[in-house]
Amino acid sequence: VNYCEKMAPDILPHLSSCKSPQQMFGAVMKQYFSKQLKVRPELLYFVSIMPCNAKKYEAMRPEFKTDYIQDVDKVLTTWDIMTMLGEKNIDPCKVTPVPVDAFFGKVSGAGIIFGASGGVAEAALRLAAERVMGKRMESFNYEGVRGLQGVKETTGTLGDS
């Protein structure tokens, strides 16, 4: 959204009005844990670990504040985490893995790619393909868009159209 606001405002009307997975998860977690712990949501502090700095800007946007409560209070990038580990001389390759908490059960491949650039769009395409055609799309062939560095596109056909 930030990129489009600055670089391509003409496409803003075509963006999804849904919150990002980061923002949805923050809001859900605050509501869930406020009920579980019997505390007010504003007393909870939600930290998100994400791959890019854009998520820091996103979390601060005023539209992601409900009743004066931010969905996400702090965003640390993976770079931030690596820096903090380095400052404490912790080698992440030597840390013993532990199981991931699965608060709501099932994990999906679509959920895994959400954190990557283009992940939400790809997850939506995969779901649409599965619902319309009844089969899974394992991969998409992305190509760079001429004149737009870092932008990729893919094309495909759903159903008989």
Explain the overall architecture.
This protein has 161 residues and is an alpha+beta fold. It folds into 2 domains: 1-96, 3-Layer(aba) Sandwich (Rossmann fold), CATH 3.40.50; 108-161, no CATH class. The chain has 6 helices and 6 strands. The strands form 3 sheets. It has a two-stranded parallel ribbon with strand order 1-4. A hairpin with a 2-residue loop joins strand 2 (65-66) and strand 3. The radius of gyration is 19 Å and the shape is globular. It starts with a helix and ends in an 8-residue tail after the last strand.
- What CATH architecture label of the largest domain applies? 3-Layer(aba) Sandwich
Low-confidence blocks of residues = none
Overall spatial form:
globular
- Report Rg: 19 Å
Query: SS-based structural class?
Result: alpha+beta
| Largest sheet data | 2 strands, parallel
Specify the CATH class of the largest domain. Alpha Beta
What is the N-to-C order of secondary-structure elements (H for helix, E for strand)?
Answer: HHEHEEEHHHEE
Mean pLDDT: 84
Number of strands: 6
Assign a percent range to the helix content: 25-40%
The third-level CATH topology of the largest domain is Rossmann fold
The total number of structural domains is 2
**Cross-sheet strand order for the largest sheet:** 1-4
Fraction in beta strands:
5-15%
Measured between the Cα atoms of the first and last residue, the distance is 30 Å
Quickly count the helices. 6
In short:
Helix content is 37%, strand content 13%.
